Amino acid sequence: MGEIDLIAREGDILCFIEIKARATAAYGPAVTAITQRQQSRVARAASLYIQQSDWSGACRFDALGLDWTGESWAFTLLRDAFEAS
Questions:
Q1: Cβ pair 18, 24 in contact under 8 A
Q2: Residue 1: inside a domain
Q3: Which structural domain, as residue segments, surrounds residue 10?
Q4: If 59 and its partner were Cys, which of 6, 14, 22, 77 is the partner (CB 3.0–4.6 Å)?
């Protein structure tokens, strides 16, 4: 059905978070590598999760990018990064 990397809550909002990491900046930031296909898979899995958990509140889809800077990992969190299609 799909895969959800992380499920969290921020207040009354259930957050489904797609995580992408890159060890090099050769192809741009990690968050730009989250494809439409991956977004659709996360949305399908989230729908199933919501049905099974009886969640009736708000939810959103976030993206977390981890980029290696050569010395440490830097992160970018995009709240409400995409919508379920």
A1: no
A2: no
A3: 6-82
A4: 14
Query: Which residue's entry shows tokens 């995580």?
Result: 19
Report the largest interatomic distance among the alpha carbons of the chain, rounded to a whole angstrom.
Answer: 44
Amino acid identity at 43: A
Contact of 39 with 82, CB cutoff 8 Å: yes
CA atoms within 13 A on the CB side of 70: 2
Confidence of residue 54 (pLDDT cuts 50, 70, 90): confident
Spell out a b/e string for 15-54, using b for 16 or more CB atoms within 10 Å of the CB, else e: bbbbbbebeeeeeeebbeebeeebbebbbbbbeebeeeee
Please report, for the domain that includes residue 12, its CATH number: 3.40.1350.10
Helix boundaries (H) for the chain: 36-53
Spatial distance between the Cα atoms of 53 and 69, rounded to a whole number of angstroms: 39
